[in-house]
TrEMBL record:
Organism for this UniProt entry: Thermogladius calderae
Protein's name according to its UniProt entry: Glycoside hydrolase
InterPro entries per record: GH57_Enzymes, Glyco_hydro/deAcase_b/a-brl, Glyco_hydro_38_N_sf, Glyco_hydro_57_N
Family membership: Belongs to the glycosyl hydrolase 57 family.
Sequence ranges assigned to domain Glycoside hydrolase family 57 N-terminal in this UniProt record: 115-432
Lineage: Archaea, Thermoproteota, Thermoprotei, Desulfurococcales, Desulfurococcaceae
Keyword vocabulary terms for this entry: Carbohydrate metabolism, Hydrolase
Amino acid sequence: MASIIPQRHLNGLEAYLVLDKPLYKPGSEAKAHVLLENKGVERSFRLRIIDEKGGVQVDKNISIKAGERLVDISPVSTLEDTGFHKLRLYLDSTLIDEVGYITGDPASRRYMRVAFVWHNHQAPNYGPDGRFHADWAFTYVHKDLLKPYGLGPYHYHTTLLDNHPGYSATFNLSPSLLYQWDAALKKGVDFKDGRRLDKGSREVQLIGETLEKYAEYARSGRIDVLTSVYAHTILGFLTDTLNAQDIVAEEVEYGAKVTREVLGGFEPIGFWTPEMAFSMKLVRILQENRLEYTILDDANHFYYAEGERSTPYEPYILLDPGTRSHIQVFFRDSYLSNVMSFQNNFTSELHAWRNAYEFAYMISSKWVDKNTRILTIALDGENWMAFSKNPPLTAYFVDKLILYLEALSDFNFIKTINLRDALEEIPARRVITNIPTNTWLGTFRKWRGEVVEQERWWVQAAEAIRLLRVYENVIQGRDSYSNSARFALWHALDSDYWWAEFWSPGVINMWLERALKTIQDRLSNIRIVDVKVRGDVYLGGECELGVSIENNLDRDVKVNIAIESWGVKETTGVIRSVSLKARTVSDVPFKVRAVSTGDTPVSVLLLSDNSVVASYTKNIYISQRLPPNPR
């Protein structure tokens, strides 16, 4: 999808019709802007603007030179009846463009709030050695990607705030993005390809200025800044498929900590759910971290929610009946958000301007329904610009869009708002009690299924989580090694590395190997060194097995011991739990009864959390026991 409105050309003349705003009081005067660029020879033509009732609003002759760009402005009268209307632009006898506008009385309702939520995020693009393998966290600040209108998208968002004092918005600055900015400011950045960004460089200086702008606007209340998990993980999948609520909960806590520290003590209350991969299991986690709201999708969350559901254009209390935990949820308009995300391939300034008007008109159309308390438009803050075929024109487009929204604000039709303020201005009145696990895409297949190889790595991730649980159960808690493994897991599970089109098994493997090796090395220090048989072993008789277990860790551990054999059975029939002191070899005796004869393998298993930590197999010979003499 290229753009909302396609290019309009007539014999080398690019032409569009826009108005000074898309929403008016009935019968008021509007300013019609005819946008013209002549890519052919000098020419003259008759320009007419005709309303839907056939009334001629503008009729004039225009001359335009070769290569000239012209904006012709004429007054037009809006119609007296309220509703949706059309104006048509004719050049000579050819209909070249048709534009919509809306009439209504701003006094008929409270102004409609429009909340833009810009999701600025980068995966933690460095390895365990601290060197970076990608530079987007930095180039999307300092590189002139949007030239001549601005630098990178992260910087340009602050430019928009500078240039539009009445504009308010909500930003997710993902904790892993903030960490990378903070690292650049403190020590510079080393890349795996040998490049370096020195902390005193102009590039890093721009990063510092950009970060301070966000912090300053957050402190002033112009914007709200969300927090999130440290990396960009698909949380609903982790909680529901991998049963990793504890990993998610800790990463949420850590992400909020990074947000507070890097933004100079700013206390976040909003949470960005990466990929909108939501599960009800997150409600308690968010509330326990003093996070009050998140943003989900109307198409894939709201319309499947259970409870007092009315319209997606108001906030809701989301109550988990099982835990009695609750947060508030704003639902984004999926259609409008995706239009802005993906229909942004503009070909000229005039084309971008025309599309900005059309998008402002689409926003304004929501004003007509008085039940629309807040319109939430949420999308990536950087990718919609960087991935456009013409990134600079996205900057021109959004600047024009904000100008239109400011014009509507001047007449009390619409007001941009950040979601922290929205919680105060429009408190939630309805309660929903369930939102099915889903993502903004309506599926998890983008991260598990579209690429065949993804499954193999999810199995590896599940294995790393299993071993982590085993180790923490063995040591009866946490230590620096399990913390290190968890940190590595956060990086490996970042959804940007699993996204089908950006599938990055090398990065995933680098961090999974780190997590697995950390735990495997620790668990290898617990082993069975010998199994000794004490006494003769006869069928039906009992003997003692002495199991020697070495714990070479620097802390006490707890394991369960089981005897597995078809030839002998442990007399109690109960798996024994034992504590092993640090740096010791312990002898653990077992009474067993022989139940068969011959050469018999006996396996001794050290277990934790229903998993085998270590094993040892010894063959023993069980003799027959002859009956006594007849007399």
